[in-house]
Amino acid sequence: MMLYQSMKMAFKSILSSKIRAFLTMLGIIIGVSSVIALVSVGQGTTSQITESLSSLGTNQLTVNIMGRGATTSLTYEEALALGEIEGVENVSPVITGNVTAKNGTENVSVSVEGITPAYEEVQDFHVQSGRFLLEIDTDYRQKVALIGTDTAEDLFGTDDPVGQKVQLNGSSFKIVGLLESKGSTSGGSSDEKILIPISTAERFLQSKGVRSITITTTSNDNVEDVKTELESTLDAKFSGAENSYSVFDSQEMLETVNETSDTLSMALGGIAGISLFVGGIGIMNIMIVSVNERTREIGIRKAIGAKKINIMMQFMIESVVLSGTGGLIGVGLGLGASWAVGKYTTMNVATSWNMVLISFTFSLIIGVVFGMIPANKAARMRPIYALRND
Amino acid sequence: MSTSEPLIRVQNMQHSYTMAGESMAILKGLTFNIDYGEFVAIIGPSGSGKSTLMNMLGCLDVANEGDYFLDGQEIRKLSDNKLAQIRNEKIGFIFQNFNLLPKLSAVENVELPLIYRGMSHRERREVARNALVRVGLESRIDHRPSELSGGQQQRVAIARALAGTPPILLADEPTGALDSKTGKEVLEMIKALNEQGHTIILITHDLEIAEQAKRIIRIQDGDLVEDRKVSHS
């Protein structure tokens, strides 16, 4: 009953000076809304990265060969030999190069990857029509090719490319399959490329061999073991030269990303805490002014029977209503801002309802903590002093 | 409450303030009783100590020395919260400058002491309305003090004092801020309330106003110099 009455009085007194109330709440509003917006964007980005990493499969290792001295790559056979390591499920070595692809008068510069049939499963990249490359294609250095959707469109327009011939640097290749569309990633478009058997590529591209190998292990648990074994094999091959190769472990990467995002969240929390603290000081400041201005009111209330706790409650509730209203407006603005970011930019946004709840609760707590001093000051005022004051 | 115990019993009340390191005696040992139903004027020039006496009688402050019994209760030993409760239940204040809360309507102002008594919303609205009817302001219930004349504001203040049905009405220069005509009306109202049985203590510096009471206590330099009945012809 008393509480309801005090709430009503608090709202009344806040509404009677709207601009002042708004300016008082501004600190809290900015604090809460920035926390919500920043955390939403941060978590959106993190979950995006995590998703794309785990879509790679967490049992995957990617080896990049930089080489040492004259040996800057592995041969196709050496790469396949890595499959002998215990726990390895698939080895997918890749030889890359660039060629000019030609069909009639259509001409396009495109990247070529020499692959093994294992590529399909390891990269999770399939054909939408025709067939994938087979063992037999690599064994006999067949001049067959798979074509990405964008390249196919460049060269053949709307015609079905499967079964057609394409000239790569003047050699004729038969297109046996059209790859599914994957869209572009940070590494460039996956749809603008031509895949040919690795054995064919080794000769055709006159490249210095395999520089990129993707390995999958039989399970998520033996990734570390395989990695260790792999590293010792490669160390032996390059005589332990530093920076001769790197092994990228998606699981490890995932952990790093999670760690980074945790640190980021902590930092955001810290910034939020500081801005809310500053907002709280603003509230305390105005509440002290308000207590001084209303000395007479306090005197009257005390004279007609208000106890300390009544006066205390009145100002505490006013302070909490101020900070709580600020918190609510902040939540609204923060949600609005993160929605707008999600809608009008390419950034991924994940609204954290936990964070909304935490920051709102925190704004209420700020009201209690920073209302304490002014409310206490008001409650301790002696009625004769307060009444005398004009 | 026993019939032998008066409403107010003040015994050797002394009070002093320390100002700039010097102790100034304001009240120098007052002793008097006030009975139920009396209409007493406490009169004295400014600086006589009558305002301090009013604070003591109204339980807004506690004297350094001496005893004060109000309605059978010893005031000296009470905590601040207990004093607040006594003020709420036993005393209706009527101030010179009305002391209404400007942001509240007339009826909300009258409700204020009832809120601190913990009365339910519906009940106190009813009580406050009746109090306003008693002072003839039923048509001004939802007006703010700024929308009322001085006399009307003082009547709201009287209604506020009456609402809690306290045994004592303590009026501090109730006509001081009013012109003589409305001052007279307010005074008539106070007299009428006394006729209805309310005990009234009127603090004033104006002998003419004090003569309206039934008994005059004169304070000078912190001493009680005169205590006489007034005969109304």
From TrEMBL, chain A:
- One Pfam family from the record: FtsX
| Keyword Plastid carried by entry | no
The protein's matches in PANTHER family, at most eight in alphabetical order, are given as:
ABC TRANSPORTER PERMEASE YTRF, MEMBRANE COMPONENT OF TRANSPORTER-RELATED
Annotated transmembrane regions: 266-291, 312-341, 353-373
The UniProt family comment states: Belongs to the ABC-4 integral membrane protein family.
Query: In terms of one coarse class, where is the protein primarily found?
Result: membrane
Where does the source fall among the domains of life?
Bacteria
Swiss-Prot/TrEMBL keywords: Cell membrane, Membrane, Transmembrane, Transmembrane helix
| Protein name per its UniProtKB record | FtsX-like permease family protein
UniProt domain MacB-like periplasmic core: residue ranges = 22-232
UniProt KW Nuclease keyword: no
* Cellular compartment(s): Cell membrane
Source organism of this protein record: Paenibacillus phytohabitans
Automatic annotation (TrEMBL), chain B:
List, alphabetically, the SMART domains matched: AAA (SM00382)
Extract one GO molecular function annotation from the record. ATP binding
Q: Residue ranges of the ABC transporter domain?
A: 8-233
In Swiss-Prot or TrEMBL terms, this protein is called: ATP-binding cassette domain-containing protein
Keywords carried by this UniProt record: ATP-binding, Nucleotide-binding, Transport
**InterPro entries reported for this sequence:** AAA+_ATPase, ABC_transporter-like_ATP-bd, ABC_transporter-like_CS, ABC_transpr_LolD-like, MacB-like_ATP-bd, P-loop_NTPase
- UniProt cross-references to Pfam families, sorted A to Z: ABC_tran
State the CDD domains in the record.
ABC_MJ0796_LolCDE_FtsE (cd03255)
User: Is the DNA-binding keyword given for this protein?
Assistant: no
